Amino acid sequence: MDFNIHLEAILTSILLVAGTYLLERIIRTRVRNPYPPGPVARPVLGNVLPTVTPWITYTQWSKLYGPVMHLKAFTQHIIVLSSEDAATDLYEKRSHTYADRPYIPMIDLMGWSFNSGFMPYSETWRKHRRVFHQHFRPEASLAYRPTELRKVHVLLRALLQNPDDIVTHVRMLTAGIMMETMYGHDIKSMDDEYVTLVSDSVDMLSSSVFPGATVVNALPFLRHFLKWLPGVVFQSFVDKSAALTNRMLTAPYEHVKNNVATGQSQKPCLATKLLLGNEHITSDQEHVHKSVLALAYAAGGDTSVSALMTFVLAMALYPHVVAQAHAELDRVLGGKRLPTFEDRPALPYIDAIYREVMRWHPVLPLGVARAAQDDDVYNGYLIPKGAMILTNMWAMAHDEAKYPEPSAFRPERFITADGQLDASGRIFAFGFGRRICAGRAMADATVWATIASMLAVFDIKKAKDEAGNEIPIPEYDYTDGLISHPKPFQYSIHPRSLTSVSLIKESR
Ligand code: HEM
């Protein structure tokens, strides 16, 4: 009895001391260290946040307040990182604190909780990420190359037939690659059932016009009440999205599973590989596999489309870059064949164009938001636990000290004095640290192969009006949102020669 009382007293004292120590540490950290500099916030409401191309405003603000800036929206702390050094310090050197994502209630409500890209840093996320690593790391991604090249050739043929609809052709390219590599499914048009499922589901998620969405994200507890409010179509919107997302996740997978089980004809793909190697897996593991397959398509489609449309825009604006690329390709291919991945080391200028495309207008200009898992002090400033961290890739890409005249499209930035590719810098458009893009090897191959192949056989220029004058293209006219695309612009795309036409027609 006495012994138990004694033990209880010791444990209570330990807990008290530990608790006091922790409390003191939190108070000391919070009192001694101010938040990073930033524009003055209004009481209660916080800062007025930009909604139109916010990355440009944040970049301007970062020149006043520095590369680590603090903002507030109601009670939410927001930290904007605008330099590669700060992003590397936090995401890579302190990766345990910055690998989390903020909780966005609409993601769960709309059925997207399968998406490891939005998951909190957790054991579940690790399970998904392991499967991604196994099947999308550079060596594993080599398996997708034949399909990537074949689909690029389909794009060339489509452009030869109908050069005016490049956005649709490029969408077909990325959708076609993902559907075939993931599910062995050959799409014939953008009206394909599975493609429509993904695009509708993604559209619903990224849409910001539905009632209640913003309110629910800012005040999560409201989701329990919104469905009862008269006239609010919130619940039916959310239910429709969840049903659609569930179909997107299961329909193509179940189709492959059925084909494999009944011995029907089925092209080999990642789904068959996962099914055939794992006949006795748990339903939990099967859910991870399904999720990885669906997410690869959802994450890899629109991102690559944005990069490729930026490429077309840059070519139309910078004819001397097209001329130099043509010269390099002709030197290596002799105008007699289309490029393959084996040609890549001999084509440094094409690689420099690819790197400049990824720098000039980063596909996700503010990255995918992170969350601080703990209080942290960086350069004397407090980054509070739960703060949302935005990675201002736009600011990093337009850092004048690293990229003089950053608004100019200049592949030469990545060419050394002796004409070699300077690959020493990172392609930060793919992110940083533990949450870096899981499909970057595949994206790199698709975007590179498309750039090299299109330039091998096509000339891309500004379009001309009826009087023969070039139609001007604005240098910067991009959409808002997580993934930013060039807004529609006029261009002209023609085969370079009759030999080019033959090469395109003969391609397989
Ligand atoms: C040009 C094309 C692409 C770009 C620019 C891009 C960029 C990004 C970025 C910036 C992130 C967030 C990284 C961070 O938080 O630091 C990300 C995450 C991700 N990407 Fe990509 N991506 C592309 C293509 C792809 C493809 C083809 C796939 C799949 C095959 C893919 C799968 C993913 C996944 C699964 C994540 C979530 C990673 C995580 O949170 O663990 N991406 N991507």
Can you put this structure into words, describing what you see?
- Residues 208-213 have low confidence and may be disordered.
- The chain has one domain (2-506): Cytochrome p450.
- The chain has 20 helices and eight strands.
- The protein has helices at 2-32, 54-65, 84-93, 95-98, 105-109, 123-136, 138-141, 145-161, 166-183, 193-206, 213-218, 223-226, 234-262, 270-277, 283-317, 319-333, 348-360, 393-397, 440-457, 498-506, and strands spanning 68-73, 76-81, 370-371, 376-378, 381-383, 388-391, 458-462, 491-495.
- Helix 9 (166-183) packs antiparallel against helix 15 (283-317).
- With 508 residues, it is α+β, with helices and mostly antiparallel strands.
- The termini are far apart.
- A hairpin with a 2-residue loop joins strand 4 and strand 5 (381-383).
- The strands form three sheets. It has a four-stranded mixed beta sheet. It has a two-stranded antiparallel ribbon with strand order 4-5.
- It is globular, with a radius of gyration of 25 Å.
- 39% of the residues are buried.
- Bound molecules: protoporphyrin IX containing FE (HEM).
- Protoporphyrin IX containing FE binds next to helix 6, helix 15 and helix 19.
Characteristics:
single chain; 508 residues; alpha+beta; Cytochrome p450; 7% strand; binds protoporphyrin IX containing FE
Give the name of the CATH superfamily. Answer: Cytochrome P450
Whole-number tally of structural domains: 1
Tell me the total number of β-strands: 8
Morphology: globular
Instruction: Record the strand order, biggest sheet.
Output: 1-2-6-3
Radius of gyration: 25 Å
Based on the coordinates given, report the CATH architecture. Orthogonal Bundle
Helix vs. strand class: alpha+beta
Query: What characterizes the major β-sheet?
Result: 4 strands, mixed
What is the third-level CATH name, the topology? Cytochrome p450
Measure the end-to-end span: 85 Å
What ligands can be seen in this structure? protoporphyrin IX containing FE
Hey, roughly how much beta strand do the residues contain?
A: 5-15%
Mean pLDDT level: 91
Low-confidence stretches: 208-213
Percent helix? 40-55%
Q: Helix-strand pattern, N to C?
A: HHEEHHHHHHHHHHHHHHHEEEEHHEEH
CATH class: Mainly Alpha
If helices are DSSP runs of H or I spanning 4 or more residues, what is the number of helices? 20
Pfam family, one: p450
Keywords: Heme, Iron, Metal-binding, Monooxygenase, Oxidoreductase
InterPro entries: Cyt_P450, Cyt_P450_CS, Cyt_P450_E_grp-I, Cyt_P450_sf, Cytochrome_P450_fung
Protein name: Cytochrome P450
